[in-house]
Amino acid sequence: MEASTPDETRGTAAQPLTAWWLGRTAYRDAWQLQHRLVAARVAGLIGDQVLLLEHEPVLTLGRHSDPSHVIAGPAELENRHIELIRTERGGEVTYHGPGQLTAYVIVKLADRGLLIRPLVRALEAGLVGACASLGVEAAPRVGYPGCWCGDGTRKIGAVGVRIEHGVSYHGIALNVTVALRDFELIDACGIPGVASTSIARELGRASEPTTESVARAAAAFAVALAGAFDAPLDGVLPPLADPRAARAELEALLAADAPAASAGPAASAGPAAPTVARR
Predict the structure, then answer these.
(1) Residue among 274, 253, 222 at smallest CA distance from 37
(2) Pairing mode, strands 154-164 and 195-196
(3) What is the mean pLDDT of residues 66-82?
(4) I need a surface site. Which of 140, 187, 212, 243 has the fewest CB within 10 A?
(5) What DSSP designation does 3 have?
(6) Which of 165, 140, 155 is nearest to 188 (CA)?
(7) Nearest 5°: CA angle at 180, between 176 and 186?
(8) Which candidate in 131, 147, 149, 189 is catalytic?
(9) C-alpha–C-alpha distance, residues 115 and 248, integer Å
(10) CA-CA distance, 130 to 134, in Å (whole number)?
């Protein structure tokens, strides 16, 4: 997929993007938090947000992805304490885990003059910019959303989004110091033979997964994404950000808006009974 031009991702006004560094966060917790933020954004109670975090090991399937692309069987996943969850996002099977940046982007597309393809291109531009800030050359690959290194066979970042009531959620995953052996559990993006790579591997550094490395990548991605949106960036980024303080501030924001948001058009957007898919 080719890179976007400035006109494709520039909104009708310079509306800020607020970034939140949440540190290590359980997948289902972050999933529910996204739905609450989407409801508030649809109701016009908050502006555009980006959640920056990392997860414990988990596999997620897009709404139309083929579970056969999960190579590991239920017993192996159970032994490794890795849950397999079917979500509503687009894209194929994805691994999340320590050492990987996951960013959830809650944006009202119309307010920025965006359609879905330019949104995906902006997310890809954010991934490319973050990689460059960390010393790695990467680029989009035509026909395959995400971010790639070398000749386009080493995938370093994934993109998968969902749009409800004109508001996006889900977003990207960027491999920083993640344990790449965990990607052997899946056919990455449903494409057999694709090699997963990371910032650490591309720099030739042996590294164990660390939250500190993810925090550095989170700051780089937030800056690059705001640039792709041509938007001011609000919020406190690592290394100054405090994940617990950020979560408390988010909860206070949502609590203040809860009565109006519960009556809004996205009140039923949350996952009423999340499906756990098993091979």
Answers:
(1) 253
(2) parallel
(3) 90
(4) 212
(5) P
(6) 155
(7) 120
(8) 189
(9) 32
(10) 6
On whether the CB atoms of residues 40 and 33 are closer than 8 A, the answer is no
Known catalytic residue: 131? no
Q: For residues 170-193, give the mean pLDDT.
A: 85
- Residue 265: the pLDDT is 37
Copy the structure tokens of residue 208: 């164990």
DSSP result, 176-242: SS--GGGGGGB-GGG-TTPEE--HHHHTT------HHHHHHHHHHHHHHHHHHHT--EESPPTTT--
Helices (H), the chain: 6-9, 27-42, 74-79, 116-133, 199-202, 211-229, 243-262
What are the chain's domains? Answer: 6-257 (3.30.930.10)
Looking at per-residue confidence, does 66 or 149 come out higher? 149
Higher pLDDT, 270 or 69: 69
Query: What number of CA atoms fall less than 13 Å from residue 273's CA on the CB side?
Result: 0
Q: How far apart are CA 46 and CA 254, in angstroms?
A: 9
pTM given for the model: 0.86
**In the structure, what pLDDT confidence band is assigned to residue 278 with cuts at 50, 70 and 90?**
very low
Q: What is the CA radius of gyration of the chain?
A: 17
* In the block, residue with structure tokens 């992805």: 65
